[in-house]
Amino acid sequence: xxxxxxxxxxxxxxxxxxxxxxxxxxxxxxxxxxxxxxxxxxxxxxxxxxxxxxxxxxxxxxxxxxxxxxxxxxxxxxxxxxxxxxxxxxxxxxxxxxxxxxxxxxxxxxxxxxxxxxxxxxxxxxxxxxxxxxxxxxxxxxxxxxxxxxxxxxxxxxxxxxxxxxxxxxxxxxxxxxxxxxxxxxxxxxxxxxxxxxxxxxxxxxxxxxxxxxxxxxxxxxxxxxxxxxxxxxxxxxxxxxxxxxxxxxxxxxxxxxxxxxxxxxxxxxxxxxxxxxxxxxxxxxxxxxxxxxxxxxxxxxxxxxxxxxxxxxxxxxxxxxxxxxxxxxxxxxxxxxxxxxxxxxxxxxxxxxxxxxxxxxxxxxxxxxxxxxxxxxxxxxxxxxxxx
Length: 389
Hints:
Elements: H1 8-20, E1 24-29, H2 33-52, E2 61-63, H3 67-70, H4 76-85, E3 91-96, H5 103-111, E4 114-119, E5 133-135, H6 151-163, H7 169-185, H8 192-204, H9 211-219, H10 226-236, E6 242-243, E7 246-247, H11 248-253, H12 258-290, E8 298-302, H13 307-321, E9 325-331, E10 334-340, H14 347-352, E11 358-363, E12 367-373, H15 377-388
Parallel strand pairs: 1-2, 1-3, 3-4, 4-5, 8-9
Antiparallel strand pairs: 6-7, 9-10, 10-12, 11-12
Helix pairs in contact: 1-6, 2-6, 2-7, 6-7, 7-8, 7-10, 9-12, 12-13
């Protein structure tokens, strides 16, 4: 067994090289709680490293996928945006909480001249992207003893590798707060280091100095426990309101003072309330429609659906019907979807059996996502029914 996750040292060395040489650094992450936390941890670690090394670096470019327009992960539109925005052709692109299933997109990034580091915790498919460095404990060549980290946990480990003895106790504490939130949000097993981080992160909430969390403490004054408060915070971070590939929750998490955070908090609260109402309505409508459906799977889609709501709806339907759930939003010639399956089933394996019909797919065993051409929807459905029969 290796003492460190495969390529963790190599990734840290490549980032240090980029800082030392003044290369443009781009951090691209998923737009959920885990992705945003990962981006914030890595960005703050890199800025601290630059300060320690007394290096001036170009402003780190931060970007996220627009889920409703582009789906999940790295994509052609995001790459075009990043290629246009970067200040120099010598650029280091770091994907966090995504990238491990983006075979074609990583190849395109390399053609555009990016060096690519993938830091992802999702399941590795049969084909692996041709990135310069891949950090993923689920990689078939990784022999690290534990595999079930959220991505923020990996980002924290990378931050430790970057800063080593120069990581202050304050920085460590604030990073662990984010890892705790992401671990709970991504429903990772509460064991090994995950359990330790959750315990420490919850304890740190009493002394937190992160303005975003302090602002939410002012909003959520009534809660039964710290875990209850964390659940309320996570619900707020589920919004994916975007502008120019920046998700509003990133700006909230990065707020530098309490007043700035208090201005953003009401927007997020309103988004959360609207989101929860729409999720509840869609769930109830689908439950009613599916009462007489005896199929082995639930496979539903519409051009009226919003992809960022479907994960929550699918989770509720799995709990109600105890069947694999595939929900998708149709736009143009493509459908982008989300998958939730009962305990003991593997969503990624199921889709691998139908991979010839899919544009992209990936995720975890219990929760995953996919993109499919509309012309292949029926073939995909039939393949899934055959797999789950």
